[in-house]
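#lab-general

N.A. 3:47 PM
ok so I finally got the sequence cleaned up, no stray characters, all 344 residues accounted for. can someone with queue access submit it? mine expired

B.Y. 3:52 PM
send it over

N.A. 3:53 PM
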Amino acid sequence: MSKFYFLFFIVFTTSIAAQHTSVTHEDFNTDGIEDRLKCTYEIGSNFGGGDCELVDGKTKNKFTLSNYGCFCAIKKRVFVAPDLRKKENEYFLYTLKKEILPQFRPVPDQSLYWIIKSGLNTQKPIENAYFDLVFNPETAWRHGEPELPYTYSIEIGAETLSKITPEEKSLFTQSNSSDHKDFLVYYGDTHFTLENEEIKDFISVANSDTYEILKTAHGVIAKKEDTYKWMFVTDMDINASPQKLRWASIEKVVLHDKHLIIKQSLAPDPEYNLYVVDIESGLGGRLKIDFNKLLESGIEIPDLSKEERFSIQEGNIIIGRKGSELKIPLEKIKQELTSFTKGK
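B.Y. 4:20 PM
back already:
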């Protein structure tokens, strides 16, 4: 385990701030001249990561790699400068990767695959009555048992990464070739490591004659006979997330016929998101919830009971107290969601 990931684990589980800097002088590229590697690992309350700079002792060229980012993000793009990809600098890249990246995996697991596919197939309808976000990962049922996510890195095309991590910019992005690749770190361990406990496995939350629904702190899976597929993963670039992923985002999951209704926590914000997902197609959408209407009636979310914050009654999603509640008809929601498969 690299210095950063050991430090990350300690801070993640104890909620303290920490910083460490190391300097190493070594001939990393075996050209007979000593090079200099300086790495700073910093973790605060909401942000953290590692930044490494390697200076070529012969040319004085500097190469960097960084995974610094927000603890609200389940994935992180690590930019690689085009010069660092050159053959003569392969030992420098290897050295920086050892410091900044967790273990490498050639292909994503199915939870990260859901994130990538959803990130590439997301739309934000403007005038829809019920949804303000729709995602369609087009995932298929897979045989066997679902794999427990863990933290690792993959190599992926920069063009694809720019679509699934749209807020992240780089000074050298414009100089990248069409086949340029960067790294993506996936913090899969956050599915199971929480502030005051550690989940050992998937948690079964609902059953029917056809489906069993499992969840992690940040994801939802459906099982059918000997097959499974991921239905939802919290990702700040695609849907939303709590301020820190040590706070579980999947608060409640309801199985309703062939659909899931997922309540996503946005802690510390008392407001939350509700998603409706078609289990068979994988198509999902985020519901529009006008919390201001509750405020106009003098109702604040922290004052509501768990049932008042979200329940299903007589075919409706109910939010609020009787007489001043928001009511969303489930059948209309399902019909509206289906319309997005027809190109609406």
